[in-house]
């Protein structure tokens, strides 16, 4: 009778060990699933942050290059205006300069 009781106890222990192993396996599977989910969430957050940072960088780059383009255009306009002013001034006084040069070249001093 004692052998049957020991055999029943051993069976009970084996069943409990099997059940514990299933619980451990289920916990391990759940842990791995949670780790995988956490990794995917982290990768998503990283991608969102990277995209946001890249968009901010591109916006700043466009703003600064846009200002640079505006400055270049403004400087070109100012330069063109100055060139036109100098051409007008030169054409206005060129006759006087030519006359002065001719006077000095043709005048002979004794």
TrEMBL record:
Subcellular location: Vacuole membrane
InterPro entries named in the record: V-ATPase_G
Membrane topology, from the record: Peripheral membrane protein
Keywords carried by this UniProt record: Hydrogen ion transport, Ion transport, Transport, Vacuole
Pfam families: V-ATPase_G (PF03179)
GO molecular function (one): proton-transporting ATPase activity, rotational mechanism
GO cellular component, one term: vacuolar proton-transporting V-type ATPase, V1 domain
Extent of Basic and acidic residues compositional bias: 39-62
Transmembrane segments: none
Disordered as annotated region, ranges: 39-73
Assembly, per entry: V-ATPase is a heteromultimeric enzyme made up of two complexes: the ATP-hydrolytic V1 complex and the proton translocation V0 complex.
Function: Catalytic subunit of the peripheral V1 complex of vacuolar ATPase (V-ATPase). V-ATPase is responsible for acidifying a variety of intracellular compartments in eukaryotic cells.
Family: Belongs to the V-ATPase G subunit family.
Protein name: V-type proton ATPase subunit G
Protein source organism: Eutrema salsugineum (Saltwater cress)
């Amino acid at each position: 009778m004692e052998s049957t009781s020991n055999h029943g106890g051993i069976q009970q222990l084996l069943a409990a060990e099997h059940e514990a192993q299933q619980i451990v396996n289920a916990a391990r599977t759940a842990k791995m699933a949670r780790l995988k989910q956490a990794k995917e969430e982290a990768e998503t957050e990283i991608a969102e942050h990277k995209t946001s940072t890249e968009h901010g960088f591109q916006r700043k780059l466009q703003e600064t290059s846009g200002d640079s383009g505006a400055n270049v255009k403004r400087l070109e306009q100012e330069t063109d205006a100055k060139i036109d002013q100098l051409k007008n001034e030169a054409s206005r006084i060129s006759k006087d300069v030519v006359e002065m040069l001719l006077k000095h070249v043709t005048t002979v001093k004794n």
